[in-house]
Amino acid sequence: MTAPRRSLPPADPSRYAPSIERPLRGKARLMEHQMDIQPHQHDWGQLVFSVGGAVRVSTSASTFIVPPSRAVWIAPRIVHAVSAIERADLRTLYLHESLTHAPAWAQCRVLEVSPLLRELVLQLPTDPDAQPDTPAERERCITHLIVDELVRARSLRLGVALPQDKRLLRLCQAIIEDPARHASLADWAAEVGASERTISRLFREQLGSGYGQWRSQVLLAHALSMAARQKPMSHIAAELGYASASAFTAMVTRTVGMPPSRFFAEA
């Protein structure tokens, strides 16, 4: 039996608020599988990064599946929620507006996490109530290096667009949660009480693509998360509902123009 989802409020944001004196603050949170952090927003931007395990970050416009080799930048005042795809050791960085003037900071995006950025994040203090054991000068140096690494980080087009229509949004969220549950659009449409024709029209109107193209992006996001955890190709294919690794390889090649091995290495 699948464990029920747990929906929790975000940690008190005022305890972690960045300031001119400490423009970058860190937070650590262990998320169990099937745990959700309820939708919320901040006046400052934040970076969501998992040291271990994968999480899903969702806004009203997009959802991002994030393995440990990636991070999601969430612009200030964007409502967002976080869900654990598996048990995840989560790190969150909050950045004061003085650090994020450039236009690139105004949009949510996926960033590549370099080994240096990962280690710097782990060195940042995360307990707001403890007396800092990191000297102020060292923390300033870590902050400067983290921001420099974020500026240098490569942006990746790994977000999955979400619609505004409530029926289609409910269907899209169900597909993202478990893309292999149904094999056909007709079965997905029946789950939300709509016809296949209606759902096909909504995909074109709301997302500018067909169902198959959109679902392929979801499958690629899940596949990237599993590949980052060194799952074999046969396991990834089976987990996503493909009868064989070759069928999965054909989908990836058709969607992105290259075989999975090359796509995973480049993405």
What does this structure look like?
- There is one protein chain.
- The strands form two sheets. The protein has a six-stranded mixed beta sheet with strand order 1-3-8-5-6-12. A six-stranded antiparallel beta sheet has the order 2-9-4-7-10-11, with helices on one face.
- The model has no long low-confidence stretch (mean pLDDT 88).
- It folds into two domains: 6-156, Jelly Rolls (Sandwich); 164-266, Homeodomain-like (Arc Repressor Mutant, subunit A, Orthogonal Bundle), CATH 1.10.10.
- α4 crosses α5 and α7 (233-239) packs across α8 (245-256).
- The protein has helices spanning 115-123, 136-152, 166-177, 185-191, 196-207, 211-228, 233-239, 245-256, 260-266, and strands spanning 6-8, 24-31, 35-40, 45-52, 55-58, 62-66, 70-74, 80-84, 88-95, 109-112, 155-156, 160-161.
- 38% of the residues lie in helices and 22% in strands.
- It is built from nine helices and twelve strands.
- It has 267 residues and is α+β, with helices and mostly antiparallel strands.
- A hairpin with a 3-residue loop joins β5 and β6.
- The relative contact order is 0.12.
- The protein starts with 5 loop residues before the first strand and ends with a helix.
- The radius of gyration is 19 Å and the shape is globular.
